Amino acid sequence: MIYIDEIQAQEVLDSRGNPTIQASVLLSDGSVGSAIVPSGASTGKREALELRDGDERFLGKGVLRACENVQTSIADTLCGMNPFDQGDIDKTLIELDGTENFSKLGANATLGVSMAVARAAAKSLNIPLYRYLGGANALVLPVPMLNIINGGSHADNTVDFQEYMIMPVGFDTFSEAMRASAEIYQHLKKILKDSKHITSIGDEGGFAPNLKTNEEPIQVILEAVKKAGYKEGDQIAIALDVASSEFVNEKGIYCLKGEGRELSSEELIEYYEKLIAKYPIVSIEDGLSEDDWSGWEKLTQKLGNKIQLVGDDLFVTNAKILAEGIKQNIANAVLIKPNQIGTVSQTMETVRLAQRNNYCCIMSHRSGESEDSFIADFAVALNTGEIKTGSTARSERMAKYNRLLVIENELAYPEYLGKSLFRK
Predict the structure, then answer these.
(1) Strand partners for 147
(2) Pick from 2, 191, 316, 365: CA 20 to 30 A from residue 386's CA?
(3) Helix, strand, coil share of the chain (percent; to 5)
(4) How far apart are CA 224 and CA 229, in angstroms?
(5) Hey, how many other C-beta atoms are within 10 angstroms of the C-beta on 231?
(6) Which of 61, 123, 337, 400 does the annotation list as catalytic?
(7) Burial group, residue 276, by CB count within 10 angstroms (0-12, 13-18, 19+)
(8) Apex CA 388: angle with CA 387 and CA 392, to 5°?
(9) What does the radius of gyration of the chain's CA atoms come to, in whole angstroms?
(10) By CB neighbour count within 10 A (0-12 exposed, 13-18 middle, 19+ buried), where does 102 fall?
(11) Of 163, 204, 285, 349, which residue is the catalytic one?
(12) Is 36 helix (H, G, I), strand (E, B) or coil?
């Protein structure tokens, strides 16, 4: 019987230069699996706890305590266990921590180990990670959501909305979709440069120009789509991550500082209605704040049959919270971030719950990322159909896209959802 022989962890740096955990698992047959845990900037308050040291090192952001938890209590408990029973491994981690949000061990500690165990098990069986986690049913290449203009907490500019994304929905293959996206990105850069905008990029590889309104980035992107020779709506759609929890005040008023406007939930919903009537927008993420559930009900009633309404801060990859949202008919899609919940198995539970209830799933990176491409395999394993992992710039973003290109080449009959995902 093959068993977990050793578990280690060390502090490494993410794409923002902040510390994070790399966990490594050694099996008794010599197989090794490692995983690096990402970290978010725009975080929901109900996310699992990311354990930080809080001392003078790295401005308090060190993760040595989380690493110590991996190498002591977690290693002591998991060593000797069967690495091929992911559910049992993750259940043990949950019980060992004993809190609702991993506040004892840290979700960064538990997720790092959970991912590393899965990767070690896949290596031991000599099969790809997506095949190990998804079996014979892992067939779908996800439609990418490419964040090509950054705003909000992802960039120091005047744009309130956090992400303006293109979705290549009118292509037959993932590789064709990526080529189109890369070409549009380069045309966008030239347009911004010719207009005397700074072409520096934000945390997720998108440009961060100081534009006058929250509508102007859409117009500039569609200009780039046209210049690149593609058709808006038909081949390239627009997706927004508004991240409205970042600009709502304590009175529930949404403050668009870039435009000098203050809107109620109803007024913001009307604003979205005008945008989707004018532009080929197919998805809006976190259109209202995580606490505005009554507003979300109205948003879903108004727009739920027209576009994808994604809950990120709203659901935080938590099956219990998602179940309540399903019960109240709130949103119709969920963003999937493994580090919001703490283990591989809990992430899978949330995806399955969403899929059983016809909610779309979007596998997602975080703004603080690494070269680890785990979520690319995870998206294919779970047939999420969509993935959100930044623009066609910055190597920690491209690592995921390049991994998906390799997977597409490996699969005998890959499916690419593309256009069918959004057109009724």
Answers:
(1) 165
(2) 191
(3) 40, 20, 40
(4) 9
(5) 11
(6) 337
(7) middle
(8) 110
(9) 21
(10) buried
(11) 204
(12) strand
DSSP conformation letters of 54-92? -SSGGGGT--HHHHHHIIIIIHHHHTTS-TT-HHHHHHH
Has 204 been annotated as catalytic? yes
Residue listed under structure tokens 């992911």: 86
* CA terminus-to-terminus distance, the chain: 50
Q: Say which amino acid occupies 298.
A: K
Q: Is 298 a catalytic residue?
A: no
SS3 215: coil
